[in-house]
Write a structure and sequence with these properties.
alpha+beta; six-stranded antiparallel beta sheet; 8 helices
């Protein structure tokens, strides 16, 4: 494990490489990176054990970042712009970040946030400590799914799918000669009329 990070780790000037990641920022300072960002003691303890690594508990994957990677992810993924009070510390293995939420620095907590939708509104509360968060066995994506549930199709939408399946089956029967043309046209017209009524 390398030495503990300097106090200005978060608010120090951007390196040349970081400037390429965040060309819109000439300096990571108090105006762009909130001064409340700091190293939680529990995470420093983990980093002293291993400077980056992986923990798996059931379906819960926690690929935590090294000291160098944290600032990189914070800048490269746009936390500095879209969610400046979230400090990314790990990935779940599926593009979801574990992050410390510093919006209320007196009540620090851990959240899950999608790498494709960084915002305060899209974050899901996971727990108040690493011990609490890593003690659970479920995938954090399940918790994000609760925030954005997949909508159940309406009864109309379900019936629409059923009618289209019936129309395809009816056409196959006609092509095989299993149904008379007159009966085929009557059933087809009735099904198409039902589709119109559903719209």
């Amino acid at each position: 494990m390398s030495a503990l990070p300097e106090e200005n780790y978060f608010i120090g000037p951007l390196t040349e490489e970081e400037m390429k990641l965040c060309p819109e920022f000439s300096m990571a300072n108090d105006e762009t990176i909130p001064p409340v960002l700091h190293w939680p003691a529990e995470f420093l303890q983990l980093l002293q054990y291993s400077n980056g690594g992986g923990i798996i508990n059931g379906q819960r994957e926690f690929g935590f970042f090294s000291l160098q990677e944290i600032r990189y992810y914070y800048l490269a993924y746009g936390f500095v712009q879209w969610a400046p009070c979230f400090l990314p510390i790990a990935f779940n293995g599926g593009g979801k970040f574990y992050a410390y939420d510093f919006r209320d620095w007196e009540n620090l907590r851990l959240v899950a946030v999608s790498s494709g939708d960084l915002s305060d509104e899209s974050a899901v509360y996971l727990g108040k400590s690493l011990e609490e968060v890593l003690g659970k066995t479920g995938n954090i994506e399940d918790e994000l799914d609760l925030l954005y549930p997949i909508a159940e199709p309406s009864e109309k939408a379900k019936r629409n799918v059923e009618i289209n399946q019936e129309l395809r089956a009816l056409k196959e029967r006609k092509n095989k000669g299993e149904i008379e043309l007159k009966l085929y046209l009557q059933i087809k017209r009735k099904l198409e009329e039902e589709i119109k009524q559903l719209q």
